[in-house]
Amino acid sequence: MSEGYGTALPASMPILLTRPSKVSAVVGTDIDAADPELLSIRAPFRQRRRGVELKLIVDNLSARRDETLIRNVTLAHAWFGELRTGSSYADIAARAGTSKRRIMQVVDLAFLAPDLTAEILDGAQPASLTSDLLIKRGVPSDWNEQRRLFDSLR
What we know:
This protein is of the alpha+beta class.
């Protein structure tokens, strides 16, 4: 048995190949001749419990941009700009082809703290943070409360 098999370090998970011959066939090389270090992956992860569900969140060291969240934050800023110039929620909804309620929900994303908006644009926001989550929970008006919300999702 190879070292580390069947064990996991805290916040780390080894990923092992159980059928290296199939990998050999796919990549077209003799897997036994490969450097063993190249055949193992150790991925950091976190556990998140929600009710009876346990979710493993595998941390990716490279940023993962949530394009839907970015699009909604961008729309929120554009729609808030229209509100400031006198457009109504109904006017914006008609132009955007959506409901007045949706405009009212999404526009709150324009009030995220600048550092949190930067995290979103960089893909550094918590993995479980989505537009839907922010819309359902509501965006706190206080930036420190927003930061606490982000931190609670990490």
